[in-house]
Amino acid sequence: MPDALLDKLRAAVGSANVLTGIELSPYVVEGRTPEAAIFPGSIEEVAAVMALASEVGRSVTPWGGGTAASVGMPTAGAGLILGLRRMSRLLDHEPGDLTATAEAGMTVDAFQTALRSRGQWLSLDPADADRATMGGVVATNAYGPRRHLYGTARDLLIGVTVVTADGSVVKGGGKVVKNVAGYDLPKLFIGSYGSLGVIVEATVKLRPLPEQEELVSVRFDRLKDAGAAVKAVAASDLIPNAVELLDGGAAAGAGLAAGATGSSTPGAALVVGFDGVREQVDWQRAELARLTGPLGGRDVRPLNAATWPRLGPAARAAFATPAAVMTLAALPTQVAEVMEQGAEMARARGLQSAWAAHAGVGVIRAAIGSDPAPKDLGAIAAVLAEWREMVHAGGGHAHLEWAPLAVKSQVPVWDDPGAAGRIMERIKAQLDPRNILNPGRFVAGI
User: Fold this and answer.
1) CATH number at residue 152
2) Is residue 297 part of a domain?
3) 401 CB contacts (<8 Å, ≥6 apart)?
4) How far apart, in whole angstroms, are the C-alpha atoms of residue 377 and residue 317?
5) Cβ distance 161 to 170 under 8 Å?
6) What does the alpha-carbon distance between residue 229 and residue 314 come to, in Å, rounded to a whole number?
7) Residue 364 belongs to a domain
8) Does residue 441 lie in a domain region?
9) Taking the CB of the first residue and of the last residue of the chain, which one, N or C, has fewer CB atoms within 10 A?
10) Exposure of 16 by Cβ count < 10 A (0-12 exposed, 13-18 middle, 19+ buried)?
């Protein structure tokens, strides 16, 4: 990096907030080391950094907690890391309006802790909440098991402040839930993976804390039976906030037992969450046992709160070193069948796999194991391609959530967006004409 640019960056944010050399090791992605990591402490400093980067054509990677840093293709060239860890304040909380505004670098855990002291919470539970930041959650549209009832960041965001590629500050939405004036700009940045702008503030809708919340597991000897139980829950009067289906490997990854003791059948686990008034939760737990018993469910038991964050990454956690993780979307009624067929495809090529699903919304994560040694990359790529074709045949879609670069070079990370890709390219060209924000990382290579 030219000394002149480095000097300007240091002048903009302070010398202590510009990292170079060995200090960059936490920000190496896919073996690529950035030229520098910059940590602004205000919107004005973010704008100054973006203006400097745009002026010289340096690529910029926005960085919250780094929990999704490996999603997508690595950006072309070294470029700059723009970290938001210094911007971590709760800016506003209106309990009467059930809204709050936070800086993008505030972690989800810190945000929830601040809200909990006043009897409210954000109904969003991404994995690694102690590292995941509010800006990162919006940029990736992250979610967890409670998506079943409460949705994703897209359903909860009502206002956003973004710094665009040229350093302009743009605000959209507002601080009240009923906000209908103009274009719904916040939705544009949700799930854009930092390719359109740097999210610096977010305003979200909140909920009162429930009187009681419980997470309940039911064991099954067969995944097919657990899938039938998912359908029974969907057709019942239950109002769960989470419906998770885990095969034997994923159940072990989440710290749960599945299948019969001493059985060669890997089994499965159905994990269901409930919240609300105490009597309602108690009735639903009993009703879950009544519904699942005739379908082969047994050992219905409550789980402790520490299980919640282990559910989302359960498939990946089944292996010490997974070879790849793919997210697939299918109809909720097809989830168990997709999991069984996908596991058989992996076995046919001599590979182990583990499967976990947000079953009520049809989102499935599948991990390929590489224990104890890495498998043939060709076999891994072939299985991933077969999984993608399988969900496409049912009208679904898939993307590689995590994989080494050698695998990504053989299997596209994202599905072909078709005609939507051209629209996305035009939006990217309007907001980032010099293509400096995460170039090449997202769908259609934008």
Assistant:
1) 3.30.465.10
2) yes
3) 71, 325, 326, 327, 365
4) 20
5) yes
6) 20
7) yes
8) no
9) N
10) exposed
